[in-house]
Amino acid sequence: MSVPEIRRRLRTPLPWRFAVARWYSRSVVFGICAAVAYGWVLAGLSKAPQPGSGWTAFWLSVAGAAVVVKVALAFGPVFAGADRLFWVLSAPVSRGAVLRPRVAGLLGAGAVVGVVWPAVVFGVVGAVVPPFVAVVVGAGVGVAVVALAVVAQRVRVRGQGWLSGVVGLAVVALLLPPRRGGALEPGGALESGAGGVLESGGVLESGGVLEPGGALEPGAGGVLGRGVVRGSEAPAGWWEGALGGVAGRPVGEAWWPAGSSGVVTGQPVWVPGLVVWLVAICLAAVAAFSVARLQRSDLAAGAALAGVARVSVSWIDLALLGAILAERRARLLGRVRSSRLAATGLRGTASRHSGSAFRRPGTGAQVLALAWTDALRLRRTPNAALVWVALLPAPALVALGGETGAVAAVHLVAAFLATDRLAAGLRFVCRSPAMRRALGLPDRRLRLAHLVFPAAGAVVWCAATAVFTPHVSALNAAISAVGAVAVVYRIATRPPIDYGAAIVDFGLFGPTPLGLLAQLGRGPVLLAVLGLVQTAV
Questions:
Q1: Residue 384: which of 417, 415, 422 has the closest Cα?
Q2: What pLDDT score does 268 carry?
Q3: Which residues have a Cβ under 8 Å from the Cβ of 441 and sit 6 or more positions away?
Q4: What value does the mean pLDDT of the chain take?
């Protein structure tokens, strides 16, 4: 038996009509995404980067790479279901030969993501590097990141904590940009004529000399030969100081890479791509060799999560995925140290002045105890706090991208996502009748008590982002805080989805599950209405 025979046995026969229909739907989705990406890339290439754009692009890329590795390690990234796992473990062929095609597919997917990621960054901060260099380096980084995840799976390294720390560091770096030096600020000018100076507080470091031919070369004195450069309106080139360096767009026909010494030199632009691809090829070779030593536990760990994720997307209900993630998290923790709730919380206390054995605690004490359980839950699930912090710079990045009209609406959506990460206790209580009966409190009181912690998080998040986010007023922040809490509450208190709801046939558009759409719209519709209100105020 050979590897092609095993793959033939695992492949489910599909009639050609179904195959054509599947490829047609996928091609339509791909065409829509490609059109949106083309417009995004075109807008990014025509956008003049601002001072500090290189810093923002770098740390956005670092955060994106860390998130990709976290997701890949959560799924394996190499996993096998029950049917494939049987053949991988029992077939008389090399285990690595069976698994290497899947690794090759993962590396290809990483390369595609790496090519797309510069387009996303360019849409936010502009083209901080030449597009060709960004594509080559991005593809190499994507391959290297996926290969690194495969190697980490083989050596069984639990790097989720370290990766969370990298994401947190990237968020802090985005919120606290470095002091800008060696930059030509927008509106600043290098006036033409011998002995011209750099105005508007700009600094030309390391004694750069602008020659009549339009090239910036190392020199002394920092004087200007001839020519005019005016901030972001420069037709021949621009300079920005990220990390105290100087970056350049085409001066004549040449692209100048960013440097950290304050001097634009003639270093070839293909050097970063060559270095990145050398590292990526080495990691890919190690990953291809290491899959032959993956064990059953390594391959079966992500199969359950992948299956539940597929079912959750098909059923349009992410509660299943949340449940399996909570179970995996509990297994990784193994055991936790019990924490004592407030003394006057849910338990009664002995009464000294009455004949009854116990005195029922007050409403305030009960709410305090339940809110404290939410705080303990957050301490045991630090990823929720990480997402809450990671969403802080999101509205500011949209403002940096030039989409000023959508900043307030994005602020509302980000506030909702941040608040939803703190509402795990509210969702659990609303979806567990057994827990509500065990607590012995009215349903309304239980829901409001578990809403205290998410509401406090929403207020803090909106107040913090309103300080440094442009085009977000105090009224926008208040609407975002109240709206985020209201949407989270409506989604958490939504009844279980009834998949037997009414379906109406509109003829041309085919059967439409209006009943299912009405159930799923509880919460998102309110979010959309509040988004329109945010853009109007």
A1: 422
A2: 61
A3: 346, 366, 449
A4: 74
